[in-house]
Design brief:
Largest sheet: 3 strands, antiparallel
Strand order of the largest sheet: 1-5-2
Number of strands: 5
Shape: elongated
Helix content: 40-55%
Radius of gyration: 28 Å
Oligomer: single chain
Structural class: alpha+beta
Strand content: 15-25%
Order of helices and strands: HHHEHEEEHEH
Length: 199
């Protein structure tokens, strides 16, 4: 049977084709209930007594799990390197450090910039006291930062920045809202499986 005869058969018996297609879809949908949720945890590939798994669990117990959140800042005027935006990023960085269970915050406000002057190596924060920076200081910092992290000459295109926050997994999170607790547990269980401790 060639392709043309198959097409002729399907077109000649349209209603039968539609009914058989629907029946096939119902059978497949009924079988979808039995699809097992696949857990991609590395522990599935080793026994509980495997020395590598034991070492991994000891490492996690010692140093705790951490999860990372990215806070993105994209000012409406199209550039991060304005006095107002830098002040806001500096403030946001400090506030994120005050968030419970946060173990690390990385942003352009606490990014270390190093510069060589004669035989000295100067290492200082890229943005420190943004409210008191002059226009030429802001231009210099934009050139240092944007030019250092690109493969092409795009110093003028620093229009978005991110603040990376690491939080400790398994810490006790004080929830006053049951809905927030429910979604937090859902997210944690989805991402970390049985290793996640419910709040």
């Amino acid at each position: 049977m060639n392709l043309e005869s198959c097409i002729a058969l399907i077109m000649g018996r349209r209603w039968l084709t539609v009914l058989l297609s629907l029946l096939l879809m119902l059978v497949l949908a009924a079988g979808a209930m039995f699809i097992v949720n696949v857990d991609v945890d590395v522990r599935n590939h080793f026994s509980k007594n495997d020395p590598h798994i034991v070492a991994l669990e000891q490492l996690e117990d010692t140093y705790a799990l951490s999860d990372v959140a990215l806070v993105t800042v994209a000012p409406r005027n199209g550039t991060v390197f304005t006095r107002e935006a830098l002040v806001a990023i500096e403030d946001l960085t400090e506030r994120l450090w005050q968030t419970p269970y946060v173990t690390r915050v990385d942003s352009i406000a606490n990014y270390s910039h190093s510069e060589g002057r004669e035989d000295e190596l100067i290492v200082e924060r890229l943005i420190d006291g943004a409210g008191s920076l002059g226009d030429s200081d802001i231009v210099n910092r934009r050139t240092w930062h944007c030019g250092a992290h690109t493969l092409i000459n795009s110093q003028e295109t620093c229009f978005v920045t991110g603040l990376v926050t690491a939080r400790q997994m398994g810490a006790d999170y004080p929830f006053r809202d049951s809905e927030a607790r429910k979604w937090f547990n859902f997210y944690g269980r989805t991402m970390y499986g049985w290793r996640f401790r419910k709040a």
